[in-house]
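Hi V.,

You were right to ask for the full record rather than a summary. Here it is.
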Amino acid sequence: MGTRHRGKQDEIRALDAYVKLSRAAAAVEASVNRPLAAAGLTLSQFGVLEALWHLGPLSPGALARKILKSPANLTTVLDNLERRELIARSRDASDRRVTIVALTDEGRARIAALFPAHVQRVVDAFAPLSAEQQEALADLCRTLGRAQEDLA
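Predicted structure:
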């Protein structure tokens, strides 16, 4: 087991699983996302570009929910992407109080160029697991994540 805690068996088992999940997630994230820095993007910036590419224009609130970032953090991310002319913000024609974020042509070209290699890095990172193991892991993560939402 990965913990030195000398508590009850359920504590040891949960801590061991937590440590292993945390270490595995950090290792996979590093190998998959390291090349993004070389492309001049943070993980959050890449997440925004990817979300807009796949889902189309979105409000900042919807984007924050999609990429699991706080709205305050997302403002800085959007400012930086807009400064680089990868996204554009405009007012919603039907409700001027709402801002809509969309990819520019340059942003669309950037994510289109980066995404295939990103997908391949994800595939490579999960290659040590069989298809059945990947599906089981996805199910376990979904169950664990939803349980945490219920606790919040």
